[in-house]
Amino acid sequence: MTAFFETFDHGADIGIRGRGKTLSEAFENSAKSMFSLLVEDLDTVIPEKSVIISCESFDLEGLFVAWLNSLLAESDMQRLIFSDFKVKIQDLRLSGTAMGEPFDFSRHQRGVEVKGATFTELAVRQDGDWWIAQCVVDV
Description:
This protein is an alpha+beta fold. It has a single domain, classed as Archease, Possible Chaperone, Chain: A, domain 1 (3-Layer(bab) Sandwich), CATH 3.55.10.10. It is built from two helices and eight strands. The strands form two sheets. Strands 1, 2, 6, 7 and 8 form a five-stranded antiparallel β-sheet that branches. Strands 3-5-4 form a three-stranded antiparallel β-sheet, with helices on one face. Strand 4 (80-90) and strand 5 form a beta hairpin.
C-alpha cells in the first residue's frame, strides 16, 4: 500500500480515503485527500499559516466527518487552502492543526468546490496494520 490518500468515484460526488499506521495519520491523510480536490496540485500549497481545529463526537465516524467539515469551514473563513495536517485524538475528542496559505492564482490551479463531508460510504476502521478513514464529499 503506497498511496496514503486517494479519491474514488461516487456518482455525482467524490469519495476521499486516507490511510495511516495510526488513526491520527488516517485522519490527516484523509484531509489531504479532500484538499487535493480543491487545488490541482496540493504540493504547490506552502504550509506557512496554522489554524487550530477542535471537535468532538459520539463515535469515530462522527468525529471524522466533524473534522473534515471543520476544516472546510476554517478554510472558507480564513480564506486559506490547507496542505498539511497534524491530529491528536483522545476519547472521541480531536485537536489538530491545519497548515496552508491563501489561494494564489499565480501558483495554484483551482480544483473542484467541496461543499461538505457526508455520512455516505463513511468508514473508520482498522485493516491489519493500517487505519482507513473514508467518506463521500459533496461537490
